[in-house]
From TrEMBL:
Keyword Phosphoprotein: yes
Entry keyword set: Phosphoprotein
Protein name per UniProt: Response regulator receiver protein
Residue ranges occupied by any Response regulatory domain in the UniProt entry: 6-120
GO biological process terms on file: phosphorelay signal transduction system
Modified residues (4-aspartylphosphate): 55
Coiled-coil regions listed: none
One protein family per Pfam: Response_reg
Entry keyword Nucleotide-binding: no
InterPro entries xrefs: Bact_response_regulator, CheY-like_superfamily, Sig_transdc_resp-reg_receiver
Provenance organism: Maridesulfovibrio salexigens (strain ATCC 14822 / DSM 2638 / NCIMB 8403 / VKM B-1763) (Desulfovibrio salexigens)
Length: 141
């Protein structure tokens, strides 16, 4: 079966992270789960990821800092920020800075699957657009 997309789950809450991984796999996604921001950055260095589900409140390297590093390095992923402590001003700031979506925990599986699906589609369209531009400019071998 083809994967609907590769999802990286970054959350320091073991039970939440592992449950979400199983749910996403059940719905046809290829899911990788890590407990902190540094581990997430290592996964992103090694391979193709479509969407990162990123907890905003983690020890050592908070989600907002992980997002900043991802953006600074130009890693082509969509970021969905998850928080147990939603603050409207933070959500607006992060959305303006390029986060695909900002969701408050607890989030329903239906809502999360919908947002993930849209994020995967958005990433694939951006990748297709980049490839199409290269073809039109004869930059492809």
């Amino acid at each position: 079966m083809n994967s609907k997309g590769r999802i990286l789950i970054v959350d320091d809450e073991d039970r939440f992270r592992e449950s979400l991984k199983r749910i996403l796999e059940k719905f046809g996604f290829d899911a990788v789960a890590v407990a902190d921001g540094m581990a997430a950055l290592h996964v992103l260095e090694r391979g193709e990821v479509d969407v990162v589900l990123l907890d905003s409140n983690m020890p050592n390297l908070p989600g907002e800092d992980v997002f900043t590093i991802i953006k600074k390095h130009g890693i082509a992923v969509e970021i969905i920020l998850l928080t147990g402590f939603p603050i409207i001003e933070n959500a607006l700031k992060m959305m303006r800075n390029g986060v695909f979506d900002y969701l408050a925990k607890p989030v329903s599986i239906e809502q999360l699957l919908s947002v993930i699906g849209l994020a995967v589609e958005n990433k694939r369209i951006r990748n297709w657009d980049t490839g199409a531009v290269d073809i039109l400019n004869n930059n492809v071998d």
